[in-house]
Design brief:
With 224 residues, the chain is of the alpha/beta class. The termini are far apart. Helix 1 packs across helix 2, helix 3 packs antiparallel against helix 6 and helix 3 packs antiparallel against helix 7. 46% of the residues lie in helices and 20% in strands. A 7-stranded mixed beta sheet has the order 3-2-1-4-5-7-6, with helices on both faces. The longest helix is centred in the first third of the chain and has 22 residues.
Length: 224
């Protein structure tokens, strides 16, 4: 497990100078925490249905490395913002929120999950890993206080539609934005075409995942 995880993290470091700057000083600590997190997922996945795979290699590549692939993009967004509060909407197993929290300990991340059992897993994982920069909120992003977060991430989330987009924008603080983990550029363009009138702007930034032969992008959407 550690070998492919470390290899993947090293590939991300080599491909982005900000990822290198963030990870290099704490490399061993980050790998250790990610390894413990993977073990937590493996332990609780059969009961809680956290991820759709039981294959360790697939878990590392498609979930952990996928969550970290846009780390440099997210870091560059956050350092320009007046506060560093992040929400991970529909967090599920804590993806991408927990890998981001492990890599970015000075940024605060709220994992928002509506399913009680999965929220319980997130609380347990926070305690097990000693992640003081994480909090867990059981519920839906639509019910959070307005203007709570500078950045809202989501991955494996439902297709965006106007009502949901407006709810996500409502939770954004002034100057904030959404960061959606997405796949092919063509599909992003199709999804965003009917939504452009509800947005300020959007941009799909490539973020290749090590060992994954699939197109991946981080979709940045700003409120109108």
């Amino acid at each position: 497990m550690k070998t492919i995880l470390e290899e993947g993290v090293n590939i991300l470091r080599q491909g982005d100078s900000d990822i290198e700057a963030v990870i290099a000083p704490r490399h061993e600590e980050i790998i250790s925490h990610l390894s413990k997190y993977i073990a937590e997922i493996e332990t609780f996945n059969p009961a809680y249905g956290l991820v759709g795979t039981t294959d360790l290699k697939e878990l590392i590549i498609k979930h952990i490395l996928d969550s970290l692939a846009p780390l440099g993009i997210i870091y560059r967004l956050l350092v320009k913002m007046p506060s560093h509060n992040i929400a991970d909407a529909g967090s599920g197993a804590g993806l991408p929120g927990i890998p981001l929290a492990i890599a970015l300990p000075r940024f605060y991340i709220t994992l928002i999950e509506r399913m009680g059992r999965r929220a319980g897993f997130l609380w347990n994982t926070k305690a097990s890993l000693g992640l003081s920069n994480i909090t867990v909120e059981e519920g839906e992003i639509e019910r959070t206080a307005p203007g709570s977060f500078q950045l809202i991430t989501f991955r494996a989330f439902q297709t965006l539609e106007p009502k949901l987009l407006k709810a996500l924008f409502r939770a954004c603080a002034k100057g904030g934005c959404l960061a959606a983990y997405k796949g092919r550029r063509k599909k992003i363009e199709e999804e965003m075409a009917p939504l452009e009138k509800f947005c300020g702007s959007w941009e799909a930034i490539p973020c290749p995942v090590p060992f994954l032969e699939e197109e991946r992008h981080l979709l940045i959407i700003t409120p109108p």
